[in-house]
Design a protein that fits this description.
single chain, 638 residues, alpha+beta, Glutaredoxin, Glycosyltransferase, 4 domains, five-stranded mixed sheet, four-stranded antiparallel sheet, 24 helices, globular
Length: 638
Amino acid sequence: MSNRLQYEDSPYLQQHKDNPLDWFPWCDEAFDKANQENKPIFISIGYSACHWCHVMEHEVFENEAVAAFMNTHFISIKVDREERPDIDKYYQEVHLLLNRRPGGWPTSIFCTPQNKPIFAATYLPVESRQQSMGFKELTKIISDKVMEHDDKLFENAEEIEGFLTSHTHPKEATKLTFDIANTFLSQCEHNFENRFGGFSVQPKFPHTSTLTALSNLYLLTGNETAKTMVTKTLFAMQRGGIYDIVDGGFCRYSVDREWLVPHFEKMTYDNALLCSLYIKAFHVFNEPTFKRTALEIAEFMLAFMSEETLFYSASDADSDGEEGKYFVYDYTETFERLRDSGFTPQQCEDILTKLSVSPNGNFEGNAIVRIEDNSRPAWFTTVQTILASMRRERTYPFIDTKIQTSWSAMMIQALFELGSIETRYTEIAVTYLDTLLQTLYLDGTLYHSTLIHKPPKVEAFLEDYAYLGVALIAAYQQNYDERYLIEAQKMANHALERFYDRGMWYFSKNTFETKADTTDSSYPGSVGVMVDLLLSLGSLVDEKYRHFAFKTLEYYSYDLSRKPITAPYLFNQMIRYAKEDRIVKSKLHVSHRHYPFTLKQYDESVTEGYLVCGAHSCFATTNDEETLDTLIEQSLSI
């Protein structure tokens, strides 16, 4: 018999509707019932593509004995972190406070009947293991203490809530100058893994905003170390493993230092950010394989992760109950398929060697396809089609069909940027952007997420305004359509009205009042993206937006000046503020420019050629687009 989650729209909540555990969605009914019946609350937060969420579901939430106990003694609430990032953010702060380390997913939170946190963990096994308490033992202890009204437990809960509701402010403002770039470079070098790239040993995440900032520093300073860190990482990632060279698209992260073995889930935000990064790297370093990867990411997203010109949020790591089953290859089966397709036995051997497919495999007896030297031999397209056809015979991983404003905006921005290479992507991006606005921006209200053909319910958070605003700026940059610039202003104005407080930004102010992130975790924190939007509007529309960007940078300057590597997107905007934008005004199309903080603006008054301007004055005109980079460079020294 299905539980209450059967009535929810979220694909993740739907995954749990048949659990014997009597789940509630996040709702007043659950909290009222807990308070009235004096039962502790268990809150489980996850998302549909989370491998360890599936493991905990199978081991714990499908366990009949566990469910019977929980249904009697607890009120259990399931939350989709992608649908309600505000709730997730609050409880990640709870986990950090209680454990002195970041959390993750699944997130397991235990609260008093009055919904005051008392314990936080991530994955919990059913039974206790050595130094790790199991779910059964933990829930028995918490239930007993609540029933006995253990004074210490409730006192601790009050103290925890006091910490969570108090707001600390920066110690002091720090003057931000371009010199902070040296600190950033030094911290990047310290964390850089020199053999395979990236900024850790294992697991490895792409760190797109760090690589973007380093690319900009290379453009501004010519620093070869910055170039090496970017190019080595991008080459290593695109060889295969974390990157899927059969279908295209990047997986979430790699569990090893070589970028070979990923957790196989694919997220829209990762692919959007990496598409943008590879486009930028192609422009900066003129490396053809970077362009190829960006195009393949876009084609993967359009073919596998969209419907009715809207982007889905994620696809799972598992299929048929096994992690990576859809993605990997058996040596014998692949050899036979190649031979049946007309390749000689020797050609089959050579092809499989090139693709790193061996009898012993490189992942649990099977093979993750990769090409060590990044080349694409003449046979590759034919073999890629054969490998793809083998996959089509398998169960495709579960796709979370939720549409999210912030993540969709990231991908739309990437498509507009890809339009600087191939113009057809600009037309695609316009279609997707217009559909997103029609779907999630209704009667002047922006929403966070929905399902196709379902009315949205959850109103937008700061990240939605920020990322959508930046995507709208990208749209204007590609087609000079003034309506996108007007909509970008609306996003900024709404965000300033709802989430801004004298330099500080809130992520949400509804269910929980939570501060916005300056740090970049799964994707760039919304403060940095908001500053990006404000700086663009300050250059293109009104100087007042630049003032709000400055006040934000000033507010967060103390930590930013000391630990810029934790907030590379915001650091990049600080460098941008210090160096200042250059605006190329014209009625003509302007191609990609060398200076990283160049904006384009349609201007009827520029009767011919191009006019190069700064924030407060204009510097030079030219009829020759080829001279623009030189003129911009000269203007920076004025």
